[in-house]
Amino acid sequence: MTSPAAPSSPPKCAFEVQVAKEDFKFHAAHFVAFDGFREPLHGHNYRVGVRLLGNRKIGPDGYLIDFGDVKRVTKEVCKKLNNHFLCPMNSNVLNISISTRVSNNSTTAASEQSPPQQMTLTCQDGSIFSFPLQDVAQLPIVHASSEELAIYIWSQLLQHLTPSYLSVERGIHTLEITVTEAPGQEAKFSWPVPADEESARLDVASFVSQAAKPPAPCLVAPQVCCPDCIKVKAGTPQEIAQQAMLERLTKAMNQAGVQWNNGPLTCQDVEQFLNTE
Questions:
Q1: How far apart are CA 218 and CA 43, in angstroms?
Q2: 154-179: average pLDDT
Q3: Could you give the CA distance from residue 14 to residue 54 in angstroms, rounded to a whole number?
Q4: Could you check whether the bond before residue 116 is cis, i.e. omega within 30 degrees of 0?
Q5: Is there a contact between 254 and 264 (Cβ–Cβ < 8 Å)?
């Protein structure tokens, strides 16, 4: 039996493996915070999927990669995150400190000789969260979003499986991670497998745009949380919420192609329509 002839224009990927097991999951708390905005503290039942893209030939063992290797490493990563608060240690809007709890309920500077330790997060809006340090997953991310969690898990899998094994031994050129926080609500991150071990740990901050972002209304707390929010927060909490809803409605109508006076709708236009009897 002869081998099939290669196509004149070889596909970028002929073999791929996808693994998304029932136990690729972790339950964790988080909130996303950026300049002028903070979500309420909440949690998700996260699920993880792994996709590996290879070359046009599989290994001499008949595998692109052994499913067992992928399952073992992914379950280890999920276990470390399970039942923890996901703390973005590289956040630029959270003041994060670690102290040591002592018997008289006072605190001193953290040291290795004086556990247990406590992590305190102070937010722009003045909210303060305190967690036992052992309940915190200290992650090298900027925001505790599903997108950044996917980058983090990508790096963890690369470090455990190693680029040399994936790229050289198995011929895998791309690794894709899916993080699902709710049914129908997921984030994917796909990135080439590097050739060297030093590139296995990605800098999450390098994937975050540095473009200026207009401040969002902080509906968590009615008070002004930062200087940029002063204009946004003019009015009562109810008025703030109504304005935010009006802005979202205006944006949706403009995206749908609705026009007024040969131009895009403004919030004032939509408000006038809503108030017309």
A1: 19
A2: 94
A3: 7
A4: yes
A5: yes
Query: What pTM, to 2 d.p., does this model score?
Result: 0.71
Say which amino acid occupies 263: G
Assess whether pLDDT exceeds 80 at residue 277.
no
User: Using CA atoms in the order 128, 133, 136, 140, what is the torsion angle rounded to 10 degrees?
Assistant: 90
Angle at the Cα of 137 from the Cα atoms of 92 and 213, rounded to 5 degrees: 25
The top-scoring range by mean pLDDT among 61-70, 73-82, 108-117, 206-215 is 73-82
Angle at 74 between CA 43 and CA 159, to 5 degrees: 115
Domain ranges for the chain: 16-207, 235-275
CA gap 104, 102 in Å, rounded: 6
Q: What angle do CA 263, 267, 273 make, to 5 degrees?
A: 85
Res. 237: pLDDT tops 80: no
Residue in this structure with the two tokens 């050289």, named with its chain if needed: 168
Q: What is the per-residue DSSP string for the chain?
A: -PPPPPPSS--S-S-EEEE--TT-EEEEEE--EETTEEPPPEEEEEEEEEEEEE-SS--TTS-SS-HHHHHHHHHHHHHHHTTEEEEETT-SS-EEEEEEE-TTS-EEE--TTS--EEEEEE-TTS-EEEEEGGGEEEES-SS--HHHHHHHHHHHHHHHH-HIIIIIIT-EEEEEEEEEEETTEEEEEEEEPPSSGGGGS--GGGGS--S--PPPP-TT-SS--SGGGTTTT-S-HHHHHHHHHHHHHHHHHHHTT-EETTEE--HHHHHHHHH--
Which two structure tokens, joined as six digits, stand for 185?
A: 């609500």
The hierarchical CATH code for the domain 16-207 is 3.30.479.10
Q: What would the pLDDT profile of 20-31 be if each residue is shown by its tens digit?
A: 999 999 999 999
CA–CA gap between residue 268 and residue 209 (Å, rounded): 31
Amino acid found at 39: E
Contact indicator for 220, 42 with CB cutoff of 8 Å:
no
